[in-house]
Description:
By secondary structure, the chain is α/β, with parallel strands linked by helices. The chain has helices at 6-9, 55-65, 78-89, 105-112, 130-140, 160-169, 224-233, 241-251, 254-277, 299-305, 328-342, and strands at 23-24, 72-75, 95-100, 116-121, 144-148, 173-177, 200-205, 218-221, 281-282, 289-293, 308-309, 311-313, 320-324.
Amino acid sequence: MIAPKPSVSTLKPYVPDEHQCAIKLDANEAKPFLFPQGLQFADMPLHRYPDPGTDALKKSIAAQYGVNPGNIMTGNGSSALIELVIKTFVAPGEVVISFKPSFAMFGIYSRIHGADFSEVDSEADFSFDLDKMITAVRSKRAKLVILCSPNNPTGYLIPKAELVRFLQSVDALVLVDEAYMEFADQGETLVHEIGTYTNLIVTRTFSKAFGLAGIRLGYLFANPSLVGMLGRVQEPYHLNTITQVIGCMAMSRMAEVKTYTASVRRLRQEVMVRLRDLGIKTYPSSGNFIWFETEQKDLYQKLIAKDILIRAFGGQDTCYFRVTIGDEQENNAFINALKEILS
Length: 343
Ligand code: PMP
């Protein structure tokens, strides 16, 4: 039998939860609100390969964020860009380091590409101690640090001042995954630091705040030299024409995105208060989800029985869960189901 390469033979894949529940609050998706208007497939040159440079899309992203198109790279979801960074910069055996718990794909991509993936534990309150990370980066001589802020699954936001201090303290390449940054307080993004720190890459996605997970579109910001290196590795025609067109449309509708994220922040606060009222331990969140703790170990299954899907963490004996903020009706259904289960 043909065996996969050693780094893949022991790999645990990322398995999306395919339970079919009426209320789906497991994957941090958004509600549909950015309906593409006036899109005519007949007008698109679908018999041609897509624009390899995704130039129009980069221009519209650049204008929105006040950077140059040469600071941007687009990808088939931000996941593909995170993998591209590892593929481009990390040789087999080199160390990639992240906090734990965080987004599972950091470890999966690192292992696929033969990196030595290492983790620093979060604190008891799920915040990150960046001094511990600085010590670990230095002692392990890490090549790449991946910091997720706001962090999935815990919702912890690394204060910008802390991140700047971190960037000044390490030589490694630092990828800050800002998939959920639109749901955080303003002014915390690192996007505008790419001119100052030549070892910084910031990734973003259309999957969360834009409500467009289905088009698979992510983007990153970095200095043009790093962007050029990534460009050597990225496959040609990496982004299909339809995604490029919808991406440009979405970038021109930022006001709607801001209205949507403001409503999620309001609903997040409501769900947080209601969970606390039920005696459930919650953690502050800057994402479109809440990380919480309860002694109800079988909560995940009991909610499925009520047609509600959330994420459970840590295997069989887990008591940590992550619930995506839904619309008002979904949140009510979730809280009412919880009340029944706990009573
Ligand atoms: N980063 C984080 C922290 C995520 O939670 C996710 C998706 N769950 C991604 C990146 C990838 O998102 P996408 O590939 O859809 O852009």
